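User: Please predict the structure of the protein below. I'd like the answer in structure-token form so I can feed it into my own downstream comparison script.

Assistant: Understood. Taking the following sequence of 174 residues as input:
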Amino acid sequence: MADNTLWVAALTAGTAVLASWVTSRGNANAARFQAEAASASQRTARQREARREAYAAVIDKAVAIGELYWKIPEATRISEPESRRAEILRLREQIRDVYAALLRCVQVVTLEGPDDVAEAAAALDRATPSTARLMRAMADGDPAAERQLTEETRAYWPALTEFIARASKAVRTM
């Protein structure tokens, strides 16, 4: 009987050690899996926030440019030639400054992605009229420049709308 007791004790001890090892290995794997899942979740949240901020900056600058576009017809209706010229050139400088900021924001969206939103941001940039040249010509009294600028700004709003739609979809599907 003593021999069987020794074997049973050794088998029980071996089983306990093996069970302990299996349990600790399972716990380690579960902890690693949980840490990886938490890390992936945090990474996705950071990426979503970075994209949302980049998209919002593009929209903010694009709307600011649009508001300046709406002021151009008012400036062209100023009857006194020097005041009209000064106001058109002032608007031209404001648009140039906001456009520079928009371009930086578009470049950030290009980095942040995804590709379809970056493409929409690039299309918005391309749809931005060549205001510097046209407004200079308007300030110099060229009526064709005003018509051309009006025509070019028509493509701007649909491009902005398309960017907003793609950006919104990209944020929702992350």
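That's the full token string. Residues 16 and 22 are 10 Å apart (CA to CA).
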